[in-house]
């Protein structure tokens, strides 16, 4: 199961939305949220897809179009399922971008993404 999920901008780690498993809130999740925020701030120097082991949990992420989709899963959760989950989130978020900014065949959302200045701009998506 994925306990914590973020969508953020790759260039600076600005968080667009986050969700978490409410049953696991507390000091442990607060620690992992802090780690996630640190990772997100440095995402532009990481490969486009990776898993980062933290012991009992693993951060999995993918990047696409200037956006990073990152989730925290239990160590035992299958990597393939985590990346499938992230791909589903990515597809749904691209649909959200189309609703927010319009849709054309050649529309590049990166300009819109880079222009966002407030954190949690897409909080309703989460």
Q: How would you describe what is shown here?
A:
This is Vesicle-trafficking protein S22a. Belongs to the synaptobrevin family. It comes from Perkinsus olseni (Perkinsus atlanticus). Residues 6-126 form the Longin domain. The structure is a single chain. Helix content is 35%, strand content 28%. The chain has 3 helices and 5 strands, in the order E-E-H-E-E-E-H-H. Strands 2-1-5-4-3 form a 5-stranded antiparallel sheet, with helices on both faces. It is globular and about 40 Å long. The two termini are 17 Å apart.
At a glance:
With 126 residues, the chain is α+β, with helices and mostly antiparallel strands. It is 35% helix and 28% strand.
Percent in helix: 25-40%
Largest beta-sheet details: 5 strands, antiparallel
Report the β-strand fraction as a percent range: 25-35%
Uncertain spans: none
Number of helices: 3
**CATH H level: which superfamily?**
Longin domain
- Following the backbone from N to C, one meets helices and strands in this order, namely EEHEEEHH
Strand order of the largest sheet: 2-1-5-4-3
Query: CATH topology, what is it called?
Result: Beta-Lactamase
Categorize the overall geometry. globular
The CATH class designation is: Alpha Beta
Count of all domains: 1
Q: What value does the Rg take, in angstroms?
A: 14 Å
Mean pLDDT equals 90
Distance between termini? 17 Å
Count of DSSP strands? 5
Assign the structural class, choosing from mainly alpha, mainly beta, alpha/beta, alpha+beta, or little secondary structure: alpha+beta
What CATH architecture label applies?
2-Layer Sandwich
